[in-house]
Amino acid sequence: MSRKILVLPGDGIGPEITREAVKVLEACQQQGLDIVIEEGLVGGAGYDAHGEPLPTATLERAKASDAILLGAVGGPKWDRLEDLTKRPEKGLLGLRKHLGLFGNLRPAILYPQLAEASSLKPEVVSGLDIMIVRELTGGIYFGQPRGIEERDGERVGFNTYVYSESEIERIGRVAFEMARKRGKKLCSVDKANVLEVTILWREVMERLALEYPDVELSHMYVDNAAMQLVRAPKQFDVIVTGNMFGDILSDAAAMLTGSIGMLPSASLNESGQGMYEPCHGSAPDIAGQNLANPLATILSVAMMLRYSLDQPELAARIEGAVGKVLDDGLRTADIAYPGTRRVTTAEMGDAVLTAFRRV
Ligand SMILES: NC(=O)c1ccc[n+]([C@@H]2O[C@H](COP(=O)([O-])OP(=O)(O)OC[C@H]3O[C@@H](n4cnc5c(N)ncnc54)[C@H](O)[C@@H]3O)[C@@H](O)[C@H]2O)c1
Ligand SMILES: CC(C)[C@H](C(=O)O)[C@@H](O)C(=O)O
Ligand SMILES: [Mg+2]
């Protein structure tokens, strides 16, 4: 039975980078991977076509898919929409919630060839290999009540940062299992010196640790963690944290790898269905210029092959092909430096495809 892959290019650079990633996915198909690839609309593209950032047809097709590859959503064109529920980002958040994609994996790995592209000294980042495990369907992103309303003659904005024990335990288990397979070190990041919700977070992580005696659990306040990621990032193996902190720390970790254009991600539910996307956004400032780095999206396909399609060998071949292209000195603008060869989005994608076919 063919596995169904739904590609959602989205907005901005989304179509450019997913086009390159689909080339690699199609190469896997040509080499025998039994998949069917379809395309759909989400985000601003969905809103422009159907008046909704998550059209009903897209959601139904996503539910029926084994895996989803998403480019990016959002852009200035839709930032001033009066109805906040129509904003492109609501399409992405809707997919996460409706599909129950609570477990977000954001690996920050420095390819040795990119040590010079990092904003940090090579000795600080060389050998970097961190996995950020982010809770993705709870916390302040989805908490109620939320909104903006009139109170005592002025407008008041409010959101609710909420987690249940079961939500914390669910993401905690993903993180402990991940740490068990890696360096057996897990750092839980919270703000328990201020926020009661993260006092509970910390208590649940402590209770889980009793079931994983082989994993060393530590705790860190999020402000310190942001600083430590820049000061000494190699102290970390696996980081587990909530929705908002994970969003912020993963972008910070991006610069350790040389560019946000290098960071893939996997968002998984309890049945193993996954949505795969680069951690970055739609990059409206460079959209349509064939400048965007497609490697985060191509590496997201590798994660798809590993986590949803049970094809670790194909995943390793894609990761090897990315390494080969970097060895050959090809660089998109975001990771270029003297002595490397500047290439466009499409040229980078074609180079990875050629290297993949040769591996
Ligand atoms: N998962 C998503 O769809 C997602 C994630 C983050 C932001 N967004 C949306 O994207 C829009 C722009 O947000 P932003 O500017 O804050 O973040 P962004 O990640 O789109 O861009 C931040 C900076 O990184 C650069 N950049 C991003 N991806 C790149 C790539 N692949 N190659 C080279 N450079 C790259 C951009 O040019 C920009 O200078 C907003 O509408 C935001 O809501 C979407
Ligand atoms: C676009 C936005 C809703 C999203 C998030 O905050 O999760 C993005 O920043 C990300 O990192 O995927
Ligand atoms: Mg983000």
UniProtKB/TrEMBL annotation:
**First-listed, main subcellular location of the protein, grouped into a coarse class:** cytoplasm
Q: Indicate whether Metal-binding appears among the record's keywords.
A: yes
Q: Any transmembrane segments, and where?
A: none
Q: Which reaction does it catalyse?
A: (2R,3S)-3-isopropylmalate + NAD(+) = 4-methyl-2-oxopentanoate + CO2 + NADH
Which PROSITE patterns does the UniProt entry name for this protein?
Answer: IDH_IMDH
Compartments reported by the entry: Cytoplasm
Pfam families per the UniProt record, alphabetical: Iso_dh
Q: Where is this site: Important for catalysis?
A: Y141, K191
Sites binding Mg(2+) sit at D223, D247, D251
Residues bound to substrate are R96, R106, R134, D223
The free-text cofactor remark is: Binds 1 Mg(2+) or Mn(2+) ion per subunit.
Its keywords, alphabetically, are: Amino-acid biosynthesis, Branched-chain amino acid biosynthesis, Cytoplasm, Leucine biosynthesis, Magnesium, Manganese, Metal-binding, NAD, Oxidoreductase
Q: Which cofactor does it need?
A: Mg(2+); Mn(2+)
Uppermost EC category: oxidoreductase
In terms of superkingdom, the source organism counts as Bacteria
- The Isopropylmalate dehydrogenase-like domain covers 4-352
Binding-site list for NAD(+): G281, S282, A283, P284, D285, I286, A287, G288, Q289, N290, L291, A292, N293
Drop me one GO molecular function for this one.
3-isopropylmalate dehydrogenase activity
Q: How is the quaternary structure described?
A: Homodimer.
Family as reported in the entry's similarity comment: Belongs to the isocitrate and isopropylmalate dehydrogenases family. LeuB type 1 subfamily.
Q: Which PANTHER family match?
A: 3-ISOPROPYLMALATE DEHYDROGENASE
Q: What is this protein called?
A: 3-isopropylmalate dehydrogenase
What organism, scientifically named, is this protein from? Litchfieldella rifensis
